[in-house]
Design a protein that fits this description.
The chain contains five helices and four strands. A four-stranded antiparallel beta sheet has the order 1-2-4-3. Helices cover 62% and strands 23% of the residues. The radius of gyration is 35 Å and the shape is elongated. It is of the alpha+beta class and 160 residues long.
Length: 160
C-alpha cells in the first residue's frame, strides 16, 4: 500500500485524500447522523401524541372516578335485572351455562349447582360475579370430579 501511495504524484495523492475525506463524511452522515435525526423526529411526534393523550386523560379522570363510585354503590343485579337473570346471562357469557344444573331462588339470591364444570372457568366466573356484578358468594361447596380439572359445585349467590 505504501509503495502504491509513493508511486502517486502529489496531485493524485490530494485527489485520493479528498475522496477518502468525502467518503468518511458521507459514511458518518448516512450511517450516524441521518438515523439519529430520524429517530429524534419520530420521538418528538410520539411525545406530542402522548402529551395530547395525557391531557385528555387528566380531563376525564374526575368523570371516571365519579362513575366508578356510582357503580360501586349500586349493585349490578338491581340495575340490570334480577339475580337469576344475571346469573344465567353471565354463566352463558363465561361458557359454563351447560354445566349449570339447578338454579333455585332463595331470598334475594339464588342457590346454584354445577355438574362437571372446569374449576378454572368456575372460579373466573365467581370472581366476575363478585367484582363486576356486585354479588357475593355466601356458601360454596366444591367436589372433585373423576375428570382432571373438573368439579361439581353447590353455592349460594346473594346481592351485597
Amino acid at each position: 500500500m505504501k509503495a502504491w501511495w509513493a508511486g502517486l504524484v502529489p496531485r493524485e495523492q490530494r485527489i485520493v485524500l479528498a475522496g477518502l475525506v468525502a467518503l468518511v463524511v458521507l459514511f458518518l452522515w448516512l450511517g450516524v447522523w441521518e438515523p439519529l435525526a430520524s429517530n429524534r423526529a419520530e420521538l418528538r411526534s410520539e411525545v406530542g401524541a402522548l402529551s395530547t393523550d395525557l391531557a385528555w386523560m387528566q380531563q376525564v379522570s374526575d368523570q371516571v372516578r365519579r362513575r366508578g363510585a356510582q357503580q360501586r354503590s349500586q349493585p349490578s343485579a338491581g340495575a340490570g335485572g334480577s339475580v337469576l337473570t344475571l346469573i344465567e346471562v353471565s354463566a352463558n357469557a363465561a361458557g359454563i351455562k351447560q354445566a349449570l344444573g339447578r338454579v333455585q331462588p332463595e331470598g334475594s339470591g339464588a342457590r346454584l349447582s354445577f355438574e362437571e364444570v372446569g374449576f378454572d372457568s368456575l372460579v373466573g366466573w365467581l370472581n366476575d360475579l363478585e367484582n363486576r356484578h356486585g354479588l357475593q358468594i355466601s356458601q360454596l361447596a366444591v367436589d372433585v370430579s373423576s375428570s382432571p380439572g373438573m368439579v361439581s359445585a353447590r353455592l349460594m349467590v346473594e346481592p351485597r
